[in-house]
Give the backbone structure.
Amino acid sequence: MKKKETTPAGFIEAIKKLKHAGLVSSPSPNRTTGCIDDMPSLDKRIAFLLGIARDTKRKATDMLFFVMYDIEDNRVRRYVAKYLEKQGCMRIQKSIFLANLNTSKYKEIKSDLAAVQAAYDNADSILVAPISTDYLKSMTVIGKSINLDIITRSKSTLFF
């Protein structure tokens, strides 16, 4: 007997299936963070940030933006994280992604995330914030002993 071939559901369809499966409201804020084992090391994340900041050949159609969220439901949060990674966004922290994508991809991501927000009754928030490379270059990392000024060569260093 031949198996019926199925195509995987799209992102929005998967969220709608979650809604129909009984996702009615957000659980309490005391939640687990989800699996972030595949998140790149801090060094790789910073190298990604600096690579964008140093790139002098960025396309005029590219857009630099952060996606930040506070999503209480574990399943929805996992779906959103996987979706953003598939779209080419880089996970910077547990709930913060950075993207350097073309404007049409930016609009698609914004639209899809708005559909997720509207799919069920929740108290979640999703922020999509465009930024400039100048702001990215002036970023400060607090909490880890990484001197971004030396890495970005924004301070002069004198050797004797």
